[in-house]
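Re: that backbone. Tokens:
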């Protein structure tokens, strides 16, 4: 039985996708905190005044109410994707993480296209600055969309990273080996 895959039952997939949803949400919140903190320090160094730290209230709200969206969303998206990948792709860690990054990035694009403010604190950090100083002197934060585009790319990267982490957890949970 070396070349034959053992099927994974639906209950185990549901458990794995639930763990993946919670891990992906926690990973996204931690990445948001880290990047917002890094941006605050960067702006502090450029402008020599503290712009404020990450919005802890938003992060707590995401952790409290996020599972009510993340778990059903993970099951609705994850079960069909898992069914398709079981028939078309190899079952290995690299494939799982790559597919998770693609699904996470797709979710990020959907969030950006729908205009859902996934990390509004980025916009508030630079609201008081007329420009980004010597670093990008031509980009005005209120008149030029370049700053928001850069923040959207960072947000998209966080979605992809959280999706990759979540898929790794789903893969390991479903196969039962760490």
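Recovered sequence:
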């Amino acid at each position: 039985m070396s070349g034959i895959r053992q099927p994974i039952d639906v209950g185990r997939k549901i458990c794995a996708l639930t763990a993946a949803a919670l891990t992906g949400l926690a990973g996204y919140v931690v990445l948001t905190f880290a990047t917002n903190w890094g941006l605050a320090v960067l702006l502090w160094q450029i402008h020599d005044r503290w712009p404020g730290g990450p919005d802890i209230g938003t992060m707590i709200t995401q952790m409290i109410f996020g599972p009510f969206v993340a778990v059903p969303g993970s099951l609705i998206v994850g079960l069909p994707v898992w069914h398709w990948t079981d028939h078309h792709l190899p079952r290995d860690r690299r494939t799982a993480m790559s597919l998770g990054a693609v699904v996470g990035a797709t979710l990020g694009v959907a969030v950006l296209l729908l205009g859902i403010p996934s990390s509004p604190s980025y916009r508030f950090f630079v609201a008081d600055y007329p420009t980004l100083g010597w670093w990008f002197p031509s980009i005005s934060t209120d008149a030029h969309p370049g700053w928001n585009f850069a923040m959207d790319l960072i947000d998209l990267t966080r979605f992809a990273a959280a999706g990759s982490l979540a898929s790794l957890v789903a893969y390991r949970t479903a196969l039962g080996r760490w």
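The first helix runs from residue 10 to 47. The two ends are 22 Å apart (CA to CA).
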